[in-house]
Specification:
single chain, about 80 residues, five-stranded mixed beta sheet, about 30% helix
């Protein structure tokens, strides 16, 4: 099981704050998880199929798309932030 958190505008677009899912395979990466989420269609596809920039974190640490997800990890997805 992993916990996925959705932040900022992505939480609003998906109407989902968090969820827990079973890892469908042993060597799951952020990229593979994003593909799996995109298969849900609609707004999920808009966010996770590359139409929008997405930052990811595993256990509150920013990671790249090749990062390995382990059982019991907490994954966060959020849009890039801009400052001024």
């Amino acid at each position: 099981m992993i916990k996925i958190l959705y932040f900022s505008s992505y939480r609003e677009m998906l109407d989902c704050e968090n969820e827990e899912i079973e890892l469908p395979e042993d060597s799951m990466t952020i990229s593979k998880l994003m593909q799996l989420l995109a298969e849900r269609g609609d707004q999920w596809q808009v966010i996770f199929a590359g139409q929008l920039p997405v930052l990811a974190a595993i256990n509150q640490e920013i990671v790249n798309a090749d990062a390995i997800i382990n059982n019991h990890d907490e994954i966060g997805f959020f849009p890039p932030v801009s400052g001024g």
